[in-house]
């Protein structure tokens, strides 16, 4: 297992878990979110290819369009 | 082209001229700048006022909305007598009276695909401000600015969450690195959060508008190397805990809008 920080809270994950698998584990809709990995936005098309690493800081947030 | 401020301008803009990062040269840049503000609601009316007050030479306002009663708590340029009138006309009238250095053009229409290559819209301005209230318009504006190889300053807020960024084309890298709005939110995203749906506090909204204006003013008064530090950063605002966070944007290698094969 590895430990990451997800939206500020510790989260245990299996080895080789992708960013997309993490989002699915959290029961979140990928199409409603943007994702930041260690202070860098990761485009949604890359989530399935990128594996979470121990101590990664991952944050997700919803798109807003109001003005 | 102006090479120095008039005596009246020196007095009027003295608070800017005193700043070492602006000075007379920076104020002259503002007095020669032209911007397009798309959406003249909560964000757009406040951005327009701050840029006009700062001495921006020409502001084009684009919106087809009329003033409604529910706008008044957060769109502070409007009053009850303005209800039913076009927002662009009211804002032009009030700001033209208050800020004589600024020419304001009102365009009563929604931004559409036909504006992509219009000389009067994105191609002829130094900056485009996206102040709209819906995802479809934001995608369209992003595509237009990328196609025009322009500069986009985009802000949005809903509830307690605000987001702000600047993207800009450069000859060296196109949009490589930072990407564009569609790299952040692909066009199949579910985006339903507008101010009308999720609500917003006026002070939170105006905080976003002020940061959007400030980013624009910084851009207009900066040199090339300074501008590199302003673009490609996503600023996230949480109005509940009063915190800002800055993260680095990334280009989606599969983006159909801003990757080199698309431009």
Automatic annotation (TrEMBL), chain A:
SUPFAM superfamilies: MoaD/ThiS. InterPro entries: Beta-grasp_dom_sf (IPR012675), Mopterin_synth/thiamin_S_b (IPR016155), Thi_S (IPR010035), ThiS/MoaD-like (IPR003749). This is Sulfur carrier protein ThiS.
TrEMBL record, chain B:
SUPFAM superfamilies: Activating enzymes of the ubiquitin-like proteins. Gene3D superfamilies: NAD(P)-binding Rossmann-like Domain. It comes from the Bacteria. Residues 13-255 form the THIF-type NAD/FAD binding fold domain. This is HesA/MoeB/ThiF family protein. It comes from Shewanella electrodiphila.
């Amino acid at each position: 297992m590895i430990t990451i920080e997800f939206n500020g809270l510790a989260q245990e994950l299996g080895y080789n878990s992708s960013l997309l698998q993490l989002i699915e584990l959290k029961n979140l809709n990928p199409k409603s979110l943007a994702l930041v990995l260690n202070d860098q936005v990761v485009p949604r098309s890359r989530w399935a290819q990128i594996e979470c690493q121990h101590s990664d800081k991952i944050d997700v947030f919803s798109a807003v369009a109001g003005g | 082209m102006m090479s120095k401020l008039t005596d009246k301008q020196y007095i009027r803009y003295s608070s800017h001229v005193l700043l070492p990062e602006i000075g007379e040269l920076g104020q002259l840049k503002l007095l020669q700048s032209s911007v397009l503000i798309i959406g003249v609601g909560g964000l757009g009316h406040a951005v327009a006022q701050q840029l006009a007050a700062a001495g921006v030479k020409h502001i084009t306002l684009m919106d087809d909305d009329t003033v409604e009663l529910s706008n008044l708590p957060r769109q502070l340029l409007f009053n009850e007598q303005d209800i039913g009138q076009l927002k662009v006309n009211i804002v032009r009238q009030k700001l033209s009276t208050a800020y004589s250095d600024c020419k304001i053009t009102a365009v009563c229409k929604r931004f559409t695909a036909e504006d992509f290559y219009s000389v009067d819209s994105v191609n002829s301005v130094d900056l485009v401000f996206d102040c709209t209230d819906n995802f479809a318009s934001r995608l369209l504006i992003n595509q237009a600015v990328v196609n025009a190889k322009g500069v986009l300053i985009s802000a949005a807020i809903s509830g307690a969450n605000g987001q702000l960024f600047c993207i800009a084309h450069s000859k060296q890298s196109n949009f490589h690195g930072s990407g564009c709005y569609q790299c952040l939110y692909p066009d199949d995203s579910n985006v339903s959060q507008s101010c009308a749906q999720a609500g917003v506090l006026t002070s939170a909204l105006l905080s976003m508008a002020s940061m959007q204006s400030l980013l624009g003013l910084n851009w207009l008064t900066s040199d090339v190397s300074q501008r590199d530090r302003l673009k490609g950063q996503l600023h996230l605002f949480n109005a509940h805990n009063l915190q800002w966070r800055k993260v680095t944007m990334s280009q989606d290698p599969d983006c159909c809008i801003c990757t080199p094969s698309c431009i």
